[in-house]
Amino acid sequence: MCRLAALITTFCFGSVLSLAQADSTKLSAKVLNQDLQFLNDLLLETHQNPYFYCTVADYDQAFLNAQKAVENGLCYADFALQVATLLRTVQDSHTYLKYAGLSQYNAKRGGRFLDISIAQYEGSIFVTSDRFKALERGSKLISINGHSADSLFQIVKEFSIREGNSHIGEQRIAEAIFSTVLPLLIDIKLSNHIVIEQEAGQTTTIPYPGLTSKELSKLRKKSKGSPYSLSIEADTAVLRIKSFSAGNDRPYYRFLYKSFRKLKRQSPDFLIIDVRGNTGGSAERMEALLAYLLESPVAMPANIIGKQSELARERHEQTFRGLNKYILTHFFKRNEDVQNYLRLVNLESGMTDTLYYHDAEDQSKLYFRGSQVILLINGTSGSATVNLAGAFAMHHAGAIFGEAPLGPKGGTWGNPAEAELPNSGLKIYVSTIRFNSDNSFSNDPTPIQPDHAVSPTLADLREGRDAVLEATLLWLKETK
């Protein structure tokens, strides 16, 4: 039995745990040690500074712990956990186990998935939504196929990520990846038994279907909505940006331009920017939004630190080639972004360079001139969204409501490159740059703290309330 299986069994009513599709086949200590050494070499060669948030001793100990764990061989799921734990030691939200790779592994073996969403409140797991609306929202999740939901979540949390000390973000990401990691831990069947406890304290067993990868993908495509929207009611506008990566660039920039033209015409007093759940994406898209929120243009990032490596070069070559390479090389001599990019891609292997930015996008004609701007963030606001929140706070653009996001004010890592461990086939990401919000080069790991901390409660979930938005609107009403 795999170690994960043994661990979960101790929490699960004495039941015997089997991994999905009974996949407890061990990989040998020899091949796993080769993978660990490959991973270690890759990380030290590629990452600009893996000791930015952790000490050399902390990382070395984590690597030794992983080596010890594979001494007698491990199954895929157990080894994935060891790799996730080692990478999390670096405290870099862009250097982590590729979750889609875990889903692909499960799908190739004919495994199934549960399309449910959960959140942890007061140490227990509760249902926030489910595909088939068979589980009451806010009901306590007791077990899945006989295995304790609480113990399953604690293991899923070991697969999570954080940037610095962003522990709220670590929990929120664990909640988000629960249904992705779950098939590694237990067998998801065509029909599954989910035990829930409702408010009255009664427990009910619900039969719940397991979906194939194709079925899940098809259903999720149907339910996708727009990643951004603007609504204006009376004196308050709400601009929602769910992602800085979804869709193509042109519709996004056109949406921003039209939205701020509309805001200028209608002149609401208050603008709420909602980037909760926005895990990041394009820094350029983030900068474009920021330009509409600041009276004076600000270069963001202030600088990036890049390190050249074989993996970083492979990432660059995905776009820096052919006609695109020719155009960038010959027609953008005065463009700061392009010239810094060229410096980065042309670095010699093993070299590091700090690239400074001075040019800033100017949207002063459409800059929002109302009396108050509010930014809403939560634990899954990550990467470029963290950088937006950091700049928003540094330049006193307005008040921030919600939870601490997935990173600190000083910046985040970025431009992750994908690699595959040669024997296990585990897929990982490793950061190739450091993105700094200012030139202080701060390594303070403390996540950004909102001016007004508001976290949803279990009562909010059950009653369908948006506690953060409600608190924001009440504050605006009281401060008029």
Brief overview:
It is built from 16 helices and 21 strands. By secondary structure, the chain is an alpha+beta fold. Helix 3 (56-69) runs antiparallel to helix 4, helix 5 runs parallel beside helix 7 (167-185) and helix 10 (283-291) packs parallel to helix 14 (384-394).
Could you characterize what this model shows?
The longest helix has 19 residues, at 167-185. This protein is 38% helix and 20% strand. It is α+β, with helices and mostly antiparallel strands and 480 residues long. It has helices at 3-9, 29-46, 56-69, 76-88, 99-108, 149-157, 167-185, 213-222, 249-266, 283-291, 310-317, 322-331, 336-345, 384-394, 458-463, 467-478, and strands spanning 26-27, 74-75, 96-97, 116-121, 124-130, 140-144, 147-148, 191-197, 203-209, 228-233, 236-241, 270-274, 303-307, 352-356, 372-377, 399-402, 411-414, 417-420, 427-430, 433-436, 452-453. The chain is globular. A six-stranded mixed sheet has the order 10-11-12-15-16-21, sandwiched between helices. A four-stranded antiparallel sheet has the order 7-6-8-9. A four-stranded antiparallel sheet has the order 14-13-20-17, covered by helices on one side.
β content, as a range?
15-25%
Distance between the termini: 63 Å
Number of helices: 16
Give me the count of strands. Answer: 21
Spans with pLDDT under 50 lasting ≥5 residues? 9-22
Q: Which overall shape is indicated by the principal axes computed on the Cα atoms? A: globular
* Spatial order of strands in the largest sheet: 10-11-12-15-16-21
Query: What level of helicity do the residues show?
Result: 25-40%
Q: Which class best fits the helix and strand makeup?
A: alpha+beta
Main sheet properties: 6 strands, mixed
Q: If you compute it from the alpha carbons, what radius of gyration comes out, rounded to the nearest whole angstrom?
A: 23 Å
Report the average pLDDT across residues. Answer: 92
